Amino acid sequence: MPNRRRTAAGLTAAVAVAGAAVLTAAPAAQATVVDVNYACVTKIGPKDAVSPVDIKAVKSGSGYTITMSFDKGVSDSPIELGKGVMTPRAELVLGGAASGTVKVKGTPNTAAIPPDTPIKIGTLTGTFTPTKNGKVTFTAGTLIVHALGMDAAECKPKNNPAPSLELEVTGLSGGDADPPAGNDDDGDDGSGSGSELPKTGPLDSAMALGTLGGTVLLTGAAGVLWLTRRTAR
Fold it and tell me: Does residue 220 contact residue 12 with C-beta atoms inside 8 Å?
């Protein structure tokens, strides 16, 4: 009889651990590297370039720090660009539970860029402050290369790229109501508006699995009670 009780307790503990692991498996954000085909208007004529774009979000206080990085350059210059004369900036288009844009900005180039060489963009950073719970998507938008005191290149995606990031925003108090549309003028924060995306994505599947894990846990507990009562008889 003690052996049966120990076996039942061991099975229940194993199920509880499995259920907890499933419940914590749902990721807060999903990032995907997306190839963006940029059409650039430059001071020396049109330029086209494809670069893989990666967008990530890290929780910071009441908002998120957003980073955008490029694997390849998207334009070049007929002359050498000296150290510190080039600064990129870009807009990320919001979708899903938010609308508008988030502005991100890079740092000046740390080394001279030779002539006729693709300009390495590096990492751009900005801030997104959500105002509504739900899934928010981030898609690469217009990219500006500021060099030699002017906007030397303006690049826009022409291949209708897919979102590079899906961010699940939760826990906002009163965040289910529709907030005001638009963004503030400095562009540092993104505002959420619009309706929630249909619950068909991998995040929702993970949540469903979490519910299943909880059901299995309850079933295991019921089995222990049944074994205990049967043993007592």
Answer: yes
